[in-house]
Amino acid sequence: MSAYINEDLISAHDGTNFEIIKETKTSIEDGETQYTISHLKYKSDVLHKFYNSLYTAKIKVGDCNDCGYDARCFNDVVWGDVLVLGLGLGVVPSYIKDVKGPTSVDVIEEDAEIVSTVDWLHSDINVITHDEWSYDTTKKYDIIIADLWAEPDDISDDHKTTLVNNYSNNLKTGGKIVIPISGDVIS
Question: What domains are there in the chain, each with its CATH number?
């Protein structure tokens, strides 16, 4: 697993609701090479970690064909105006900005401490501190990526309904609301 964002930019952090931990790992390629990789973990969640990895970024935008994830939800996506729900370490919006050539990337994150801590993002990525479930805007998007869950089993029909009710008017013609962890298109 290789880091996506330069690890020198990321500091360990023990926040109110989350922590950023820097881990030393051993490469699976040669079994000897050591590297450092960060992950963000919510303190209320004992299992799931959000890694600073290229692999994670590729999965969450449909660019990892051999990862075992169904990327069909990204078929025919236009990478113009993009909205990402959930910031984490900023891997997903950074990858979109670097690789997809979007017109704009907006991110909604409700935890103000995460927003102030994740200060290594490109200045063209617009991070808005607000509840992801109730953010209201008149802007229209080509794709809205809901990166709010660690596991597909965490997603309920009520979650999907709330997202559709809140964001369907913010989609351009042909736009999609995508939940990458489950492969769902809910728009």
Answer: 7-51 (no CATH), 57-185 (3.40.50.150)
122 close to 97: Cβ distance less than 8 angstroms: yes
- Residue entry with tokens 């290789």: 2
Rounded CA-CA distance 19/81 in Å is 30
Distance, CA of 175 to CA of 187 (rounded, Å):
8
Least confident of 3-7, 17-21, 148-152: 148-152
The tens digit of pLDDT for each residue in 74-95 reads: 999 999 999 999 999 999 999 9
List the one residue out of 47, 109, 102, 97 whose CA is nearest residue 80.
Answer: 102
